[in-house]
UniProtKB/TrEMBL annotation:
This is GMC oxidoreductase. PANTHER family: DEHYDROGENASE XPTC-RELATED, GLUCOSE-METHANOL-CHOLINE GMC OXIDOREDUCTASE. Transmembrane segments: none annotated. It comes from the Eukaryota.
C-alpha cells in the first residue's frame, strides 16, 4: 500500500471537512492557508476568477486564488454605468506607466490596470464585443489547431447570460436585433443594454450609413466591419456593472474547497526538475511548478503556497510575463540581467506585446436643444441620480460609450490596397533590438504580418474602431496593430522599492510600425467626412484644434502627441508554436513545463478587432475545461505533490 498517498488523501479530507469556502484576509493568512492546494491561480481578475470558479465545481479538489488587490467596496464610480470614465479609485489601480515612446513624442503614458478582485472588469468601459470570425480563424492559422471561431463560440456562449434590450422603443431606430443563436442565456456573466440612450446614437449610425458603412444588428455574430449599438457587461435587473467578481466569485465563496487570499502579491513560481521532455529547443527536462512564493507587502515575510497539481498564471499580459521571468522562465539575456537562474530559456516571454493604440478626437456638438452628459449638473444631476437609484432608469444606466463602428479599410480610403502592399516587407526592422529579434520571434512576426494583411483585406473585419459619446468625442483606435513592444521585469524581486510598478519595464512601442499611425490618420479623415453627413450636421459639430486642420504634417504630429492606450494589452505569453516565438502551447501550458499554464490576454497571438474582455472570458472558460480534462481524477495526478508539511514558509522576503 502507498502509505504516502494514503496519508496525503487523509490530510486533504481532514482539511476539507474543517475548512470553509472563504476570503482569507492578510491577518489570517498564517492561520487559514492550507498546507497545499490542488490548483493555485495567480491573479483574481477576469480569467483567474473564471478558472477558479470552474475548477472548484469539483468538490474534491482545492483551489487557491492569490490576488494582489483587495475586494472593492462597490462605490458608485465603479458600479453605475453612467459614471464610467469619471475616474478610478487609486487603490484599485496598479499605477503602471510606459517607458518614453520613441516613435511618438518621447513621453511616457499612464497604463491603468486593475489591482482589485475582478481585475479589469472592475475598471473597464463595459463594452462586450467579440470581433470577427476571421480574427479567431487567424489564431488557428498561426499554428493553433482548434482555436477557431467555431470552437470559441461555445465558450463565448458559456460565459454569457445575454438579455435582449428591455426598452422596445429603441430596437428599430438603433437597429438592435441580436442574433440569439450566437448568444448564451445561462452563463454567469450578464450582458445586455442600458435602459436609456442619448439621441446622438441614432445620428451617428445614420451618418455612418451615409458613408456606406453597414449597420450591424448584432456585432457579435462573426462580422465586425460595420457600426452598431454594442451590448455591455450590465446586469439587466439593476442596470449596474457586471464584473467577474459578481459573476464568478461572490455566489460560490461558500464552497469549502475554494479560497481567495487577497492583498497577496505573487513574486515567484518555484520550479523543480520533473522528467525528460520533448522540447529540444529548450531543455531535455521538463520543469514542474510546486509552489508559489508571495508576500503581503515589500516589508512582510515571504510565504510559499504549495501545489499538488497545477499553477495557473492569470495575472494579465503585463504581470504574468514578469512573474515568469523572475521565476527563471524567459529570454536568457533578460534572466541573466536579473541574476535569476535559468529554468527555461524561452525567448517569447514578454515579447510580442500588442495593444489598440487610441486617439481621442473632439468634435463638440453645439446644437442648443441637445441633451448630453454635459447636462448632468446641478438639479438635473440630482434628478438623474434619484431616477437611477429609485427605478434604475435614465442617463445613469447608459455607459460612456455604447455606439461604435469598425469600418473596413475600404471605407477609409480607396487607396487601401497600396497601404497593404509592403506590409510583409523587412519584418526585422520593426522588432525591438536585443532579445526581441530572436530568430523564433522574427519567424512568428513574419507569419503574423501575413495574417494581418489577410485580415485587413477581409471585408468582414474592421481596421479601426470609432467610439462615439454623447458630447462629440469620436475616439479612434487601430484594431490590428503591426507594432510590437515588450515587457521585462527590472528586478528579481517584484516588490523591490515597495512597488511592483517600479519593477516593470513596459514598452508598447506604439507606432514603431508606421502603418499604425497612418491608419489613425485615415480615421481622422473619415471623422471629417462623418461630421459632414446630413445626419451628423444636425448636431452642429465643432471640431477642436487640431482636429479641424487638414495639414497632414500637423495632424501626424498631433497623433503622435495624443496616442494613448485602449487598455487591451496582449500577446506577451503568446499561444504559438515554439519555433515561432510562442510561450504556451494550444493547451496553454508553458513550453518546457509540465504543470504551469497561462490563462489571460497574454496568450492572444493576434488582437481581434474588439474590446477584449469577451475574448478573455471565453479563453478562461475553455482553459478551465482543458484543465479538467487533463486532470480527470482529483487524486490520481501523475505529477508528484509537494513535501508534506506546512504550506507556509516564512523567510527574509528576498
Amino acid at each position: 500500500m502507498d502509505f504516502s498517498a494514503f496519508f496525503r488523501a487523509l490530510l486533504f479530507c481532514a482539511f476539507l471537512s474543517a475548512a470553509q469556502g472563504l476570503h482569507i484576509a492578510p491577518h489570517d493568512i498564517d492561520k487559514l492557508l492550507l498546507p497545499a492546494y490542488d490548483y493555485i491561480v495567480v491573479g483574481g481578475g477576469v480569467a483567474g476568477l473564471v478558472v477558479a470558479h470552474r475548477l472548484s465545481e469539483h468538490p474534491d479538489v482545492t483551489v487557491l486564488v492569490l490576488e494582489a488587490g483587495s475586494l472593492d467596496s462597490s462605490p458608485d464610480i465603479i458600479t453605475v454605468p453612467g459614471l464610467v470614465g469619471h475616474g478610478i479609485v487609486p487603490a484599485y489601480n496598479w499605477n503602471l506607466s510606459t517607458t518614453r515612446q520613441e516613435f511618438l513624442d518621447n513621453n511616457t503614458r499612464y497604463y491603468d490596470q486593475g489591482h482589485v478582485v475582478g481585475g479589469g472588469s472592475i475598471l473597464n468601459g463595459l463594452l462586450m464585443t467579440r470581433g470577427a470570425k476571421a480574427d479567431y480563424d487567424a489564431w488557428q492559422s498561426l499554428g493553433n489547431p482548434g482555436w477557431s471561431w467555431h470552437r470559441m463560440l461555445h465558450y463565448f456562449k458559456k460565459s454569457e447570460r445575454f438579455a435582449p434590450i428591455a426598452c422596445r422603443e429603441h430596437v428599430d431606430p438603433l437597429h438592435i436585433h441580436p442574433h440569439m443563436p450566437v448568444h448564451g442565456t445561462k452563463g454567469p456573466l450578464q450582458v445586455g443594454y442600458p435602459n436609456f440612450f442619448y439621441n446622438q446614437s441614432a445620428n451617428f449610425l445614420q451618418g455612418i450609413a451615409e458613408l456606406g458603412v453597414p449597420i450591424l444588428s448584432d456585432p457579435n455574430a462573426g462580422v465586425s466591419a460595420g457600426a452598431s449599438v454594442a451590448p455591455s457587461s450590465i446586469m439587466a435587473r439593476n442596470q449596474s456593472r457586471a464584473d467577474s467578481r459578481r459573476a464568478y466569485l461572490d455566489h460560490v465563496l461558500h464552497r469549502p474547497n475554494l479560497h481567495l487570499a487577497s492583498q497577496q502579491t505573487a513574486t515567484r513560481v518555484l520550479m523543480s526538475d520533473l522528467a525528460t521532455g520533448g522540447f529540444p529547443l529548450i531543455s531535455k527536462r521538463l520543469k514542474k511548478a510546486y509552489a508559489v512564493e508571495f508576500r503581503t507587502s515589500a516589508e512582510s515575510p515571504q510565504r510559499n503556497a504549495f501545489c499538488n497539481r497545477e499553477v495557473i498564471l492569470a495575472a494579465g499580459a503585463i504581470l504574468s510575463p514578469a512573474i515568469l521571468q523572475v521565476s527563471g522562465i524567459g529570454p536568457a539575456s533578460v534572466l541573466e540581467e536579473l541574476d535569476v537562474p535559468i529554468q527555461v530559456n524561452l525567448p517569447g516571454v514578454g515579447a510580442n506585446f500588442q495593444d489598440h493604440a487610441m486617439v481621442h478626437a473632439f468634435y463638440n456638438y453645439t446644437e442648443s436643444g441637445l441633451f448630453s452628459s454635459r447636462n448632468l449638473t446641478g438639479a438635473v444631476l440630482q434628478e438623474v441620480e434619484e431616477q437611477y437609484f429609485t427605478n434604475r432608469t435614465g442617463p445613469w444606466t447608459h455607459p460612456l460609450i455604447s455606439t461604435i463602428a469598425f469600418p473596413h479599410l475600404s471605407h477609409l480610403t480607396s487607396m487601401w490596397p497600396s497601404l497593404l502592399s509592403n506590409i510583409t516587407s523587412s519584418p526585422e526592422s520593426y522588432l525591438p533590438l536585443g532579445p526581441g529579434r530572436h530568430p523564433t520571434l522574427l519567424k512568428g512576426y513574419t507569419h503574423q504580418l501575413r495574417q494581418l494583411k489577410s485580415l485587413l483585406s477581409d471585408s468582414t473585419v474592421g481596421a479601426i474602431e470609432i467610439m462615439a459619446d454623447s458630447v462629440g468625442t469620436l475616439t479612434i483606435s487601430i484594431q490590428h496593430p503591426l507594432s510590437r513592444g515588450f515587457v521585462h521585469a527590472l528586478s528579481s524581486d517584484l516588490l523591490a522599492n515597495g512597488s511592483v510598478a517600479r519593477n516593470i519595464h513596459l514598452d508598447p512601442r506604439y507606432c514603431s510600425h508606421p502603418l499604425d499611425c497612418d491608419l489613425i490618420l485615415q480615421g481622422l479623415r473619415f471623422n471629417s467626412r462623418l461630421i459632414a453627413t446630413e445626419a451628423m450636421k444636425k448636431l452642429q459639430p465643432r471640431p477642436e484644434s487640431p482636429w479641424n486642420i487638414t495639414d497632414e504634417n500637423i495632424l501626424n504630429e498631433a497623433i503622435r502627441s495624443q496616442v494613448v492606450t485602449e487598455y487591451h494589452p496582449s500577446g506577451t505569453t503568446s499561444m504559438m508554436p515554439l519555433n515561432m516565438g510562442g510561450v504556451v502551447n494550444t493547451r496553454l501550458t508553458v513550453y518546457g513545463t509540465a504543470n504551469l499554464r497561462v490563462v489571460d490576454a497574454g496568450i492572444i497571438p493576434l488582437l481581434p478587432a474588439a474590446h477584449i474582455q469577451a475574448a478573455v472570458y471565453a479563453i478562461a472558460e475553455r482553459a478551465a475545461a482543458m484543465i479538467k480534462k487533463d486532470n480527470p481524477s482529483p487524486m490520481a495526478s501523475g505529477i508528484p505533490g509537494p513535501p508534506l508539511g506546512p504550506g507556509i514558509v516564512k523567510g527574509s522576503g528576498q
